[in-house]
Design brief:
Elements: E1 3-12, E2 16-18, E3 22-24, E4 27-31, E5 36-39, E6 58-65, E7 74-77, E8 83-84, H1 93-101, E9 106-107, H2 110-120, E10 124-127, E11 131-139, H3 146-159, H4 165-172, E12 180-187, E13 193-198, H5 201-213, H6 218-232, E14 239-244, E15 256-262
Helix pairs in contact: 3-4, 5-6
Length: 286
Amino acid sequence: MIRKERVYILVKTYPAISEKYNELVCTAGILENGDWVRLYPIPFRILKEDQKFRKFSWIEVEIERNTKDFRPETYRPNLNSICVEPRPDKVDWKKRNEIIFKKTPVYRNLEKLLRDKSEKSTSLAIFKPKRILDLVVKKTSREWDLQKLEALREKAAQLDLFMTPEEVRAEFSVVRKVPYEFSYKLEDEKGKISTLMISDWEIGMLYFNCLQRANNNEIEAVKKVKAKYLDIFSTRDVYLFLGTTKAYHNLAKNPFIIIGVYYPPKAIEQGSPQLSLFDSENGFEN
């Protein structure tokens, strides 16, 4: 059944390549009643310019349950129906907190979240770690999967009969792959220590912006990323948006990854300044 909803966008992951849907961004947000919704698939980079929503924006969109995904929060959006509401010019953390936390529960116990995953198929959640212990950095492949890239090229060749060369390039252009995997090592309120991979848009863009400022010195770029996610974020009130992947939801002992990091000031008072050094630099989408 198709219905129209207002969705407050909280998550945009770094793009991944799909043989079926081209280049995809996993997008998720909360409805006005506080329920999570995953919008999939969204080939974000080929949306119309006035439809390219940013995080912490309200959008209106027609959605229907994606029956090919057993996770209850997953809905298929009608891309043509996306309407992006105007966003405030200044960052208002107090207002964001009101929207996010008014009706949406916050997990502090990872075992409780994992039980809800098993019993209710919960696949999206807000998690508040007791402590962040480290940012673990691991080298990974530097190029996209060749098989998937070839599938995209073949599809582009088929579409060439119906699209201009410029349109083909726009649809099948491939975003740069981050050659490192970043993960938070953290502790929950019960003292359980876990390591969760971070796959949000911000950390990917931060890495490449740091790489540019470091004159392509990857070691220095990684240091700058760690400084942001450890040293600077230690002064903020950090929450993590967690999600599972469909492939590992029922297979992995802990299938959750970090699909967004939310970092409001630790104390927000009425009339306090809302802008900070986090609000417009390093590729962070505030």
